[in-house]
Design brief:
The chain has about 180 residues and is mainly alpha-helical. The chain is built from eight helices and no strands. The longest helix is centred in the last third of the chain and has 20 residues. The radius of gyration is 20 Å and the shape is globular. It starts with a helix and ends in a 19-residue tail after the last helix. The C terminus is likely disordered.
């Protein structure tokens, strides 16, 4: 079980950090998830969907902590003064770099997948609306979007991916 937990640590941490928006809180949440999982290890008969099970355990712990711990509770941003809420230069740089990396990864997608992921995930169009815009069946929209999301996830989470150096060059001129 220890090896299974170790193999899922990085992914759990990414999720926890996205939920908490704080590195130490995310580490605490993942650590609590690991402890709880080890306590329940004997109840696991199949490791096929262990990632979802771990995520569910973490989700439950996250909400328990939100209910019972003031440092986890959400507060209204307007309750803070501008000075307390301002972000450090380092945080702003990291966010800007992450946005650029995602933008670059989207640029690596094939054009048909790139179009659909932008229309659905960034612009909020429905599958039907994208189908009408691109004049393709809804099923094609769904399958392209699924492939685009999978590829984007692999690009963004891959340690081998080097942003800004690997781009799809798209030639939109029609061949004669």
């Amino acid at each position: 079980m220890h090896a299974v937990l170790e193999s899922h640590y990085a992914n759990l941490y990414r999720i926890a950090y996205a939920w908490c928006q704080d590195a130490s809180l995310a580490q605490d949440l993942v650590q609590d998830t690991m402890v709880k999982s080890l306590q329940k290890a004997e109840t696991i008969s199949c490791f096929e969907n262990i990632d979802r099970w771990l995520c569910k355990v973490m989700h439950n712990l996250f909400y328990d902590n939100c209910r019972h711990n003031t440092r986890w509770q959400q507060v209204d941003v307007e309750d803070f003064s501008e000075e307390l809420h301002s972000e450090s230069v380092e945080t702003l740089y990291i966010k800007k770099q992450a946005i650029q990396n995602i933008h670059d990864a989207i640029g690596c997608l094939p054009v048909d997948q790139r179009e659909i992921i932008i229309l659905v995930d960034l612009q909020g169009y429905s599958y039907q609306e994208v189908s009408e815009v691109m004049v393709i069946p809804v099923g094609t929209v769904m399958s392209r979007l699924s492939r685009a999301r999978d590829k984007l996830k692999k690009l963004v989470t891959s340690e081998k991916y080097i942003p800004r150096y690997h781009h799809n060059v798209v030639n939109l001129k029609k061949s004669k």
